[in-house]
Amino acid sequence: MMKVFAGIDTKLNSLPESSNYLSISVIIPCFRCAKTINRAIDSVLQQTNKPAEVILVDDASGNETACVLRQIEQQYPDWITVITLPKNSGAASARNAGWAVATQPYIAFLDADDSWHPEKLHIQHEYMRNNPDVVLCGHHCVWLRTSDKPPALLADYRVTRISGNSLLYKNAFSTPTVMLRCDVPFRFQEGIRYLEDLLLWQQLAMAGLPIVRIEKVLAYVHKPFYGVGGLSAQLWKMEKGELRNIKILYCADSINFAQYISASIFSLIKFFKRIFVTFFNKNMQD
């Protein structure tokens, strides 16, 4: 594939004809990600078992992203589909748009600036196929600097059941770690931003649906989880998102008043801790 923009490598490896496809739709929301999307796609291509389809949702990027996505789609016309939203609506709406056209029984989410371990889809798909009552399966994710090597993947692993109450106090999953059943009765709440993914995990768990975490590192982010760049830099907006989630759950009678108050207070304590950590790290760098 030709390079069409200076500094952007749009060349991807060819999809092997001998791949064994899994019944998974991979959904990647894309917003101004021309410089990172190839890394994300490459990590899907490198899976030991490929997903049946990949859906790229362009969230009205308004720059060279759309052209890069179309080039990728043209290279894999029977495997990658690009959807373009008419206006920027946020990751929740973008993921829902991809979910609405997904054809497979399992959905795996990947962000355009993150990547996966090559065994990620195989391990999760096998677990969910063997445990059909589980509606959502996540795993661990680490920050991988440019100079870092991925942590070694242990052969054995344990699986932890994640309760709805625990999700009030700590998000057990980052979005690129999650695989879920396509037929779950909830979707990302349209139009909201900041921790909209956590709200979905909480709603599923509070409804009594089994969700679990595989205790393995199978995904990588390529910037710190908070305090540097992107949405994660906007700590107060993230905090308001978490408090909003707690209120939504309370208004839906998913949690009681005591849970509402305790979770809100704990969330604020975490917020001030993050402010301190971000301030300390910035001063250390200066």
Describe the fold and architecture.
This protein has two domains: 22-222, Spore Coat Polysaccharide Biosynthesis Protein SpsA, Chain A (Alpha-Beta Complex), CATH 3.90.550; 232-285. The chain has eight helices and nine strands. It has helices at 37-45, 65-75, 91-101, 120-130, 164-167, 196-206, 235-251, 257-285, and strands at 22-30, 51-58, 80-84, 106-109, 114-116, 136-143, 159-161, 179-181, 211-221. Strands 1, 2, 3, 4, 5, 6, 7, 8 and 9 form a nine-stranded mixed β-sheet that branches. Residues 1-18 and 227-232 have low confidence and may be disordered.
Shape: globular
CATH architecture of the largest domain: Alpha-Beta Complex
Put simply, the count of helices is 8
**Share in β-strands:** 15-25%
User: How would you characterize the largest beta sheet?
Assistant: 9 strands, mixed
CATH class of the largest domain: Alpha Beta
Concise account of the structure shown:
This protein is an alpha/beta fold and 286 residues long.
Primary descriptors:
disordered N terminus; 2 domains; Spore Coat Polysaccharide Biosynthesis Protein SpsA, Chain A; nine-stranded mixed β-sheet; alpha/beta; 286 residues
Layout of secondary structure:
Blueprint: E1 22-30, H1 37-45, E2 51-58, H2 65-75, E3 80-84, H3 91-101, E4 106-109, E5 114-116, H4 120-130, E6 136-143, E7 159-161, H5 164-167, E8 179-181, H6 196-206, E9 211-221, H7 235-251, H8 257-285
Parallel strand pairs: 1-2, 1-4, 2-3, 6-9
Antiparallel strand pairs: 4-8, 5-9, 6-8, 7-9
